[in-house]
Amino acid sequence: MKLYAPWEKAFKKVSTPFEEFLHAQTTTGLILIIMTILALILANTSLYESYSHFFHMNIDFNVGSWVLSHSLHHWINDGLMAIFFFLIGLEIKREITAGELSNIKVAILPILAAIGGMFFPAVIYTYFNYGTQGAAGWGIPMATDIAFAISALVLLGKRVPTTLVTFLAALAIVDDLGAVIVIALFYTETINTTALSLAGVMFLAMIVLNRFGIHKILPYFVIGLCMWFFMLESGVHATIAGVLAALAIPSTPKRAPESFTKDTKELFEKYEKFPSKENYELHEEQKKILTNIKDKIDEVSTPSARLEHSLHLPVALLIIPIFALANAGIKIDFSSIGSTLFEPVFLGIIMGLIFGKVIGIFGVSWLAIKLKIAQLPKGSTISQVFGVAFLGGIGFTMSIFVADLAFLGSEELIFQAKIGILTASLFSGLFGFFWLKSIAKKEEASEK
């Protein structure tokens, strides 16, 4: 009997949170490429007017005299992306509590590399833009697109050690945390203290639910939605609510894992006492037993793990591709593209994402290893870390997101920034990929 379609079989192979994480990032990276190309085509053909009008049409929510009105583009960047940031928050929490970042000896290298990979790009960008209108964009080259970067590494398969993939994933998670902090602290223009206080109250309410051992998702969803709304009204970017909500979600099981085996074994024994029917229809008691088993599985797992599992594919297949389609559509005026290449914003992003990331990630890693503060990922070489440093220069999703915040209202600067992001990300991704591939070929040749 054929139980699963081919694509379902592929998903069934995912067995651990980290493997699922890599699977989702690889899927996202491949779809992002397609959606970015589609957005560029739509923006540079006769379809541009329809494309622009569609994402800038207003969508209103009315309750009596109260109206919440924003463009579709705004709803995507402040609404859908809050779910993306919620998933990032869950990933950060998992890595810190039980993942690679929970062991300081293993975590120290990606943490230091990530800090260097944020600091040097910002400094280099500031050097090119100090005192200019584009100075506010210093946060743009700090970001690493976790989906694209990991996709490039995973595509190399067994040619690179799994520890190198883990190093990049941990580095990107720390990088995401840094980006969240930068957005919260530096890309907020005006603050409505009343709304921000109410958002804080909602966050505290979620913490209280956690402390009282509430594991049902619905209360957190309702309060989290209220927190998102108050954050939206406060002036602090609404996506920060997604990260805060993730931190408040319980990450401990309701039931001790030790009792799970004993309880489910007894239930399975009861289940098997009922004879199977010819049409495979279950007995009513069997249905109750299966429901009971499912409840016990939920109790032994954690709400944060269940949410991370359920959100990976929707975010990978829907939210990030929609964001790319809405934000990567740059109408390129080829007659002025030459002058854009010499603008400080473009140069700052190019130099920051390419050279800043390499200096920060590779340079800091090399220094930390030389000073014996940290160790190379097991089975990897310093040359491979150099290649990974270039993959860190793929800024795409988060860089575009920060660019829209930094240059709000300035189409010209946003255009320069996005051209720089696309150019630097393409170069960094290709160079890093082929560098690692060439190293793998040399190693294979030397082994023969």
Helix percentage range: over 70%
So, the CATH homologous superfamily of the largest domain?
Answer: Na+/H+ antiporter like domain
CATH class of the largest domain: Mainly Alpha
The separation of the N and C termini measures: 45 Å
Run of helices and strands: HHHEEHHHHHHHHHHHHHHH
User: How many strands, which pairing sense, and closed or not: the largest β-sheet?
Assistant: 2 strands, antiparallel
Task: Give the name of the CATH architecture of the largest domain.
Answer: Up-down Bundle
Strand proportion = under 5%
Task: Explain what the structure shows.
The protein has about 450 residues and is mostly helical. The protein folds into 2 domains: about 15-60 and about 70-185 and about 235-250 and about 300-445, Na+/H+ antiporter like domain (Na+/H+ antiporter like fold, Up-down Bundle); about 255-300, no CATH class. The protein is about 70% helix and about 5% strand. It contains 18 helices and 2 strands. The chain has a two-stranded antiparallel ribbon with strand order 1-2. β1 and β2 form a beta hairpin. It starts with 5 loop residues before the first helix and ends with a helix. The model is unreliable at about 1-15 (pLDDT under 50).
